[in-house]
Amino acid sequence: MKFNRRETLILAAAASALSLCGVANSQAAEGDMIDTAKLLAPAGDIADKVEGHPDAPVTIIEYASPTCPHCAAFHNNVYPDLKAQYVDTGKVRFILRPFIRNVLDAAIFMLAEAAGDTNYENVVGTFFRTQNNWGMSDKPRDAILEVAKQLGFTQETFDAALTNQDLYNGMEALRDQALNEFGLEGTPTFYVNGKTLTGDKTLEQLAAEIDPLVPADFVAPAADAAQPGSGDAMAPATDTMAPADTMAPAPAQ
Fold first, then answer.
1. CA dist., res. 200 & res. 189, Å (int)
2. pLDDT by residue (tens digit) across 61-71?
3. Which of 108, 111, 107 shows the shortest CA–CA distance to 250?
């Protein structure tokens, strides 16, 4: 689908933003192992956003949709503790990948990309926390814009972010790869060192998968071992984004 300034988010009015998160033609089952080399070679030429130490013994890849209530519940209620206990301690590196189910998903991930690596998590997290507001709005475009303005976007940078056709195409490629190669059956889906975990997961359920993969003699790496902006790990998300006029807007198509 072609994104341009006139059409961006207009179709969102017809989208069922908080519909069921399952997708058709499911193939993967809970516990299936996926080749980690394939998992770590994402389609679409979109750089992974990585939280945590690059040499962590456990890698978790999550495919998520901003309009999925289960994804929002995980990021609002579970991820903060997972990050504190496993990501920040060097045991887990966590990768969040877009799975776009509708134009709203695409728009939010496009805004996050435009905000830059150090603000990516903050943008996505903010939209998860406010999902009931914009997701249930009868004018989702306006509601998303209002949240974006609170994050530092202007009307101009908002419009520019949503005209990045290459990024949109890349997210489509990521989605198709997840469906066709990894057998993804719904969101959220997690891959823990290649093991498929589907649907809602508590911290205890994730810990049961992570703990056996952490060596008994594990020592947390030095705090400065992962440098922000290295491409392998992100800096911790900040509470607010940089002013919008400092952001590099996505190129218009």
1. 8
2. 999 999 999 99
3. 111
